[in-house]
Amino acid sequence: MAELQSTKKAFVTGWPVKHSKSPLIHGHWLAQFGIDGSYEPIAVEPDGFNDFISGLAENRFAGGNVTLPHKEAAYRAVDVATSHAQKLQAVNTLWFEDGKLHGDNTDGYGFSANLDAANPGWDRPQRGIATKAVILGAGGASRAIIDCLQSRGFGEIIIINRTIQRAQTLVDHFGEPCLAQTWDQLGDHLNDCDLVINTTSLGLEGTSWPDLSLEQLPKSAIVTDIVYTPLDTYPLQRARACGLRTVDGLGMLLHQAVPGFERWFGVRPQVTKELHSLVVAALEGTK
Ligand code: ATR
Fold this sequence. Notes:
six-stranded parallel beta sheet; 11 helices; 36% helix; alpha/beta; 287 residues
């Protein structure tokens, strides 16, 4: 007779994974709903990733999250990938359905849900011309943002990067309406720009930002960041100094967790101020 198991199990895997705030987020929701479930961090080296995936069903996981550096390997490992995951060729959320391993990428959802919550209408400014976004950076993290802005119907997506070839590779992959530009062309794109998104790792690991001048942005523009350590990044500080609206990156992390929790545990959770404060306190505690 099969072993009876009522506890629903989920995980987050990465290498390393100990910095992940996902166990705190899902643990908060499990407690809030009184669900008999678990969400555990599991560190898996790149060489062991495929074996880890092969053992998921036997270990009775309902599914889980995948973080760096396994998102591309997870995409290759799933039986069924959503259209978002196919476009990004990267998966951050896994679940079983009809005996098959499914994969989605919820980073773009997290990005747009965060802006929807903070600034409803962010993708439909009133000025009556095509919406324009400037993305700073062309690393892996920028891909989900481009996909999201395309699906929200942005008219121009300018990708600014130090290494222009990386930005051009993204333009070749995503197509219209993306344009690759260098940092010295940033000023050409600000005076009719509705949204600026930082996806670079500038400011992290000892790198410092060059001066970032945002004065030319329209007063209606929004500046957001996907970095949340620190929460108040240099681009957000510069934007506030110009009187612009800003949205920090922590909300993206919280919102991207929602679809996974619903798939594994059957309840759609809410991103609340209480949850935001809980994670901020944990981030401050690990400084
Ligand atoms: P990922 O791991 O997400 O693929 P990454 O390789 O760490 O990303 O790079 C993140 C982004 O920050 C890239 O756009 C990178 O620019 P390059 O493609 O030119 O490397 C950008 N970035 C990191 N350090 C930078 C610096 N000192 N100046 C300018 N851009 C920088």
